[in-house]
Write a structure and sequence with these properties.
This protein is of the alpha/beta class. It has one domain. Helices cover 45% and strands 10% of the residues. The protein has six helices and seven strands. The strands form two sheets. The protein has a five-stranded mixed beta sheet with strand order 3-2-1-6-7. Strands 4-5 form a two-stranded antiparallel ribbon. Strand 2 and strand 3 form a beta hairpin.
Length: 243
């Protein structure tokens, strides 16, 4: 129930690179639709949800975000506090794998819609394979919890939010109890980490515009994608992207 620190993020980097081949990967982003049966006409198409996958440490972890999908979490920078290097270039923010509906941000990596060269074909295949985790997670969640397989009959947006969050917490608890976790968070903080965390909180409002510009940097998005294409292409032939 807390944001990961630099050690947690580093462990995620290592686990995803070992399993998927993507260096600096935090998880995957996708959307799941839950129909609102009693949605007032005035609210039509105003409430959307998106989920991000992998950050809380389990192999099938799902976390609901509020009105702006992943954007608030990406903007505050708390999920991107560990450096990594790809193809000789250093990056300060981790990234999520996404499909074509998401923008070209520095913290989102998408596959190619029509790859024509061998490196981009291989990269797109690896990217699509890694993103299957979140689709499977949604399938497991809906199969396990009947209430989200039918249209929501609640009259309140807050109640809908509490129901889905409860389902996700229970889902994650089951995974942890069955030892299906990628990386468990340790409640250990050094004095330096606590001081850095407080400093980040104090500067969050002041630095929000700067961070937002960095995240929306399309040039950085393109550079990271090109570096990852080269990185995936140079993986040894014996490496197999886990499914």
């Amino acid at each position: 129930m807390r944001s990961p620190n630099a050690h947690d993020v580093a462990r995620l980097y290592s686990a995803h690179e070992e399993r998927r081949g993507f260096r600096g990967m935090l998880g995957s982003v996708d959307c799941m639709h839950w129909e609102w049966r009693n949605c007032p006409v005035a609210f039509k198409e105003q409430y959307t949800r998106a989920c991000f996958f992998g950050m809380a440490g389990s192999n099938n972890d799902i976390n609901v975000l509020n009105q702006s999908p992943i954007f608030d979490k990406l903007k505050n920078g708390t999920f991107s506090s560990a450096l990594f290097e790809v193809n000789g270039h250093e990056y300060s923010k981790g990234y999520y794998l996404a499909d074509g509906i998401y923008p070209d941000w520095a913290t989102l990596v998408k596959g190619y819609s029509c790859p024509t060269e061998e490196p981009t074909i291989k990269f797109t295949r690896f990217q699509a394979s890694a993103r299957k985790d979140i689709e499977r997670a949604f399938g497991v969640l809906q199969g396990r919890v009947h209430i989200i397989r039918i249209a929501s009959r609640s009259m309140s947006v807050n109640r809908i939010r509490r129901v889905i969050e409860c389902c996700l917490i229970l889902h994650n608890m089951i995974l942890e109890d069955n030892n299906f976790v990628l990386s468990k968070w340790e409640e250990i903080f050094t004095t330096e980490e606590m001081e850095n965390g407080m400093e980040r909180i104090r500067n969050r409002g002041r630095d929000r515009d700067i961070i937002a510009r960095e995240i929306r940097d399309r040039d950085m998005h393109n550079q990271l994608t090109e570096d990852l294409v080269e990185h995936i292409w140079n993986l040894p032939p014996t490496f197999r992207n886990a499914n």
